[in-house]
Amino acid sequence: MRGYGALIGLNLKLALRMKSVIFFNYLFPLIFFFIFGQAMHAERGAAMTIVIAMVLIIGILGNGLFGAGIRAVQDREANILRRYKVTPITPGPLLVASVVTGWILYMPNVILILALAHYLYGMPWPESTVSILIFISVGIIAFRAIGAILASVVNSMQESQLLVQLIYLPMLFLSGATFPLAMFPPWLLVITQFIPATYLVIGIQSMLARNESIAANIQPTLALLLTAFVGLFISYKLFRWEKEEKIRPSAKLWLAAVIAPFLLLGGWQMHVQTGIAKEKILNRELARGDTFLIRGARIFVGDGKVIENGSVLVRGGKIAEVFEGEGPDAKTLKAEAVEAAGKTVLPGLIDVHVHLGAPGGFYADWTKFDPDKMMLRNLAAYLYSGVTTVRSVGDGLDAILKVRTTANSGEMLGAELQTCGPMFTVPGGHGTEYAKNLPAPLQEEFQKQTTRLPASSEQAKQQVDELKQRGVDCIKAILESGAGGRVFNRFDTGLFDAAAQEAHADSLPLAVHTGDARDVSDAVQAKADSIEHGSFREKIPDALFEQMAKQGTFYDPTLSVGEAFKNFAAGDDSLLKRSLVQQVSPSDLLSGTEQMLTSSEGAAVRKAIAEYPIDMAIATDNLKRAQEHGVLLVTGSDAGNFLVIHGPTVQHELELWVRAGIPPAIALQAATGNAARLLKAEKQIGSIRPGNDADMLVVDGNPLEDISATERISLVVFKGERIERTTLFDQH
Q1: Residues 24 and 53 occupy one common structural domain
Q2: Same domain, 64 and 98
Q3: Which of 353, 400, 362, 328 minimizes the C-alpha distance to 576?
């Protein structure tokens, strides 16, 4: 051990005498740290995570490839290694001393960078500091090993510099150390999975931004350790003491052996895509870490309060402060100023009733309809329109849970998604008819994914419990038996009550689809959390509304779908002409729907729809009386049905409400604070108050006077990220 200690001490003395070592280990990273810190306004939030990762990766790459690689070649060409050869020493101590020296020289810089980020830029001290230090240590060892291999396989300084640059530059530019991975196209993201430095970047950023432990990054950690072991072993075998000892060009292939763990890891990631998904999620979280102040705006809080002139401070994805009046200067808060004079800030809008997998129209060429991709695109359309949260009420279970994971994790950018899972109904009941037009082999699977048909109370409870285990956010039951030309079997009230009781026991909100007053009565008696649709054909008694108000049952009238059905039956395509609908809808969906409205095939569909009794006067009267009795109102559109195109659904629902006589303030509260309460998410969304997620919609004008102002979107903020709306559809 004395020999090892002596070599390490000697290496340190020699290194510290060299100005270049001091400069590149300490001063050079600090220059980058301050330049990029100031340029990226790191004091505002997550940019500091990017700066730290950038500076550390540049240092680790330099420490390994230049510090170990080129330095060893210099020693060999200066005949320093020849002198060691005549002593009783093997290559082992020299290689170990090189690694330990590199670690000792570089680790103080890591501590210094983290300390400066904390004390100068206000970055919270990482909770996973120990994991960060261990992970960086492993990275230093691995890249020193790669550097040692480089020194072993080159025959001259000139050759070593060329080979080092060929490895250093791709790692620097393709790992995310200099250019954020969010900028990369999908094909380039795949390539990054084969680059060792990528895992260093992702690991450091994950530990800084998400407080992940080293256990959460075990794959890249093990790959780095394996690289270190293989690299040092091969370096030992190929070690050369004198420059006259030449090595065959084919020996350079040993470099492939050193990075083989990452070639294997990259190949595996190409298959499972988890690495790319993690990169996207991390980039999303970093984008949500900025600090900015929206000032000089009217603020509709979401709970009935309106601030005529105020400011909202967003920090780290949350609403940090809400100021009334002039408010502080943005610079004193280390925030960017976003001027909003003449604008209104609203909580992100919420649609509590959508069918995400249904397109809302027709494609001329149905081969262009991919349900999974379309659901993600629909969530992007909602976010584009300022609808930041939606609830799916009857999409296929496996597909909608997969989409929820993809969207809510941040892997793909779109509105937050809740799902009610399959619909509880009865054989021949509403919800089962959609399978009739499918080929026989597909009907059973469709029913399994979209419906639950309990035959007993025990089975109903069991099915609710199973859905709870699958992670659904609510339970939907259908009581409607239809009318006119659309008559269905009605869900047995005993089975319905059993499902309702179990939903309450499992703390799952219960949404009930109703068609007439009897349905509403049965749902209210079962203490449903929300009445979906109410009735388009029958007056709901005042006594029922009084009971709903007393027990806190929410009312979702879905006027949009009633109007859309009437328009479709009449061949009226005016709903497709709305500006926001035109902006978010695929052109082939719009053209295909317009063609259907005028075709002979469409005539048969229109006739079938016209047979179902829909009276908008009854529906609006029910809504007005619900409001008069103090019932909690929420906004749902039933999007996915004919002419109810996913995206700006809430805006049109609000217009219909106001047209029916509902005050704009009450309508807006239904679309924000009330809807959040129904979703049991009022502590995260639905109101502009400190601690909530920064989900906000900034519009031109005053929607309290002109509800159509909700469509004049100036800015959408989602979990603290200012959304670049024009790029939302590029990710699909």
Answers
A1: yes
A2: yes
A3: 362
